Amino acid sequence: MGASRARDAFHVMSKPTGAICNLDCDYCFFLSKEALYPDSHFRMPPDVHETYIQQLLAAHPDREEVVVAFQGGEPTMMGLDFFRRTLELEARFARPGQRILNTIQTNATLLDDEWGEFLAEHDFLVGVSIDGPAELHDVYRSDKGGKPTFARVMHGLDLLARHGVEWNALTTINAANGDHGLRVYRFLRDELGASFIQLIPIVERVSEELLPIAERGWGGRNADRPLYEQRGSLTTSRSVSGQQYGRFLIEVFEEWARHDVGDVFVQMFDTALGHWLGMKQAGMCVHAETCGRALALEHNGDVFSCDHYVESEYLLGNIASGSTILNLLESPAQQQFGVAKRESLPQYCVECDVRFACNGGCPKDRFLSTPTGEPGLHYLCDGYQAFFRHVDEPMRIMADSLRNNGDADVVKAWYREADSTRSRNEPCPCDSGRKWKACHGGRGRP
Ligand code: SF4
Ligand code: SF4
Question: Which of 194, 201, 197, 121 has its CA nearest to residue 154?
Fold first, then answer.
């Protein structure tokens, strides 16, 4: 298969340490995937490393950008030499004119000056996991001894700033920070200076039988932890609820649309705007019509359908055993995985007024039933409906402006006009239940 077939964008998330991490965050069900490889040392061997880089670059056309993504587990546990070798392999296998962007998702707690210099010199884009200020971040993000990690993450962020490394925030929305959207967003924007933010809902799906054990967390501190698989119709108490998720997004949107359009990039809002502009595959895969273009690569060369489906049933093949990334991406199993997202939508979603923006959400979380009893409704549906309906008018304003070669930030003037007649004591239009002056109308801590 030629490289031209790969012009439909695709993405590989590689996990050079598999599920191994130096931290033990309670909600991180990926930690339990260690059990998939009982005899492994969890370090990507040199031959798999070489095959991965060679195949990934070969799968992209000349003169295009290739994203080389490292995730985990905690990829910095591989040590700097692994990443130095990555650069050598990229130089060896790059096709003519290819631009390579290296990205790494990290908890930032192992970074030091040597890392900072390296990441800056080679223009890595660094995603840092942080869930808000200390009292919210530390609820679930702890180390192997159960100790809080916020101070160490802040140290890592200071180091990145000192070396001028480009970074973005990956913030999970969970039961602890789920009622504090505005506070979390202002913290990321004002105290960390984040200008690119990903918001990821925590949905830990479990069966009734596994729930009591799962409640103790998925890391090594829970000696009885089960292997996480996408089964069951209950969720742990750490999971965000649909209502919470919708409120969180609305609180953040109301702040962003008033002040930050054009300056701060929030992935969820950019994706939604793409849908209001009529794009079918805009941005985040969870709201795309079909999926299947984001493979996960384990440390031993195993390729899975998606980072969220690292389960034996979704193992497509192994790049160290004769398969290629491109063949696996185009395999019938993976094609079917991708279109099943659209084809399995319940009728309730098919008829939903915001389906063009939602597309039923990620299949992994479709474990509720619709009001008529049809299975396959997304766990966060009420939050999705609340958010997408709430943002309809400002999204239309931004989309209309962009269609007419204007800027999306015209929406700020629309908010200014609406706010000009608001009294300080009236309820905030974000429906938080707070007064305007104590919510979006004030700049203090909500
Ligand atoms: S299964 Fe979910 S997370 Fe994976 S590619 Fe599809 S929508 Fe995205
Ligand atoms: S908002 Fe709910 S009903 Fe509408 S498409 Fe999304 S999941 Fe389906």
Answer: 194
Work out the number of other CB atoms within 10 angstroms of the CB of residue 444: 8
Q: Which atom of ligand 2 is nearest to the CA of 388?
A: 1
- CA 358 to centroid of ligand 1, rounded, Å: 13
CA-CA distance, 21 to 443, in Å (whole number)? Answer: 37
Q: Which residues pair with 265 in a beta bridge?
A: 196
Q: What is the pLDDT of residues 106-122, one digit of tens each?
A: 999 999 999 999 999 99
Whole-number Å distance, alpha carbon 45 to ligand 1 midpoint, is 27
> Cα angle vertex 48, ends 46, 52, to 5°?
115
Burial of 179 (0-12, 13-18, 19+ CB in 10 A): middle
Helix, strand, coil percent content, the chain, rounded in steps of 5: 45, 15, 45
Q: How confident is the model at residue 9 (pLDDT cuts 50, 70, 90)?
A: confident
Contact indicator for 87, 30 with CB cutoff of 8 Å: no
pLDDT at position 433 is 92
User: 161-187: per-residue pLDDT in tens?
Assistant: 999 999 999 999 999 999 999 999 999
Cα–Cα–Cα angle for 268, 360, 257, rounded to 5 degrees: 25
Q: Ligand 1 centre and the CA of 380: distance in Å?
A: 15
Q: Answer whether 284's CB lies under 8 Å from 271's CB.
A: yes
Question: For residue range 20-57, what is the model confidence (pLDDT) as tens digits?
Answer: 999 999 999 999 999 999 999 999 999 999 999 999 99
C-alpha neighbours within 13 Å on the C-beta side of residue 3: 16
Task: Give the mean pLDDT of 410-437.
Answer: 94
pLDDT tens for each residue of 61-110: 999 999 999 998 999 999 999 999 999 999 999 999 999 999 999 999 99
Which residues touch 156 (CB under 8 Å, ≥6 apart)? 106, 107, 108, 109, 110, 111, 128
State yes or no: pLDDT of 5 exceeds 60.
no
Residue positions annotated with a catalytic role: 307
Tokens at 388, concatenated: 């997408």
Ligand having the closest approach to the CA of 353: 2
Output 220 or 329, whichever has higher pLDDT.
Answer: 329
- As for ligand 2, residues whose beta carbon falls within 6 Å of it are 348-349, 352, 354-355, 358, 360-361, 378, 381, 384-385
β 125-129/99-106 pair status: parallel
Which protein residue has the closest C-alpha to ligand 2 atom 8?
Answer: 349
